[in-house]
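Students often ask why we bother encoding 3D structure as a string. The short answer is that it lets us treat folding as translation between two languages. Here is a chain of 170 residues written in the first language.
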Amino acid sequence: MGGRLTTTACDLEALAPRDGRLTKRQRRYDIVSHSSEETLEFGRKLAVLAQPPCLVLMEGELGSGKTVLTKGIVSGLDAAPETEVTSPTFALVHEYVGERKVYHLDLYRVEGERDLATLGLDEMLDQDATVIVEWGEKLRAYALFPHLEVRLQHRGERERRILVDEITGN
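And here it is in the second language, the structure alphabet:
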């Protein structure tokens, strides 16, 4: 991964059953980022896996780096420069269109299926687009295959652990 990023990958491991279904993980990436710049760079590299159509579910505490990682993915997909990518906490959805189309959702303030229904997620997923969802655990039960599950964890003031599971099917 370059720089100080550290990574491990495991291929074709079965995940624990979720909602009664056994899912397959094609790959797991376990990254330690030591700065926002490294998180951004990993996002650019992660864009290779996030080619449309793709759903990316992100989980992590406030300030764990979800938006920084999203900036890298959007930039890596040539949908918009990273400087134009901001958190859609209050708008709920931002759309970026360049070489590819990316929808960036923030579900922090969304509660329940009724709120989810108003976002137009089905229409977004029907397009040739990458849909990146912060607070993606609110959508996990509805996730289609294939998709990416990304978990960000604080490991100190600047350090973050980033786990990425590429879910390929059941």
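Translate back mentally: The longest helix spans residues 36-46. Keep this in mind for the problem set.
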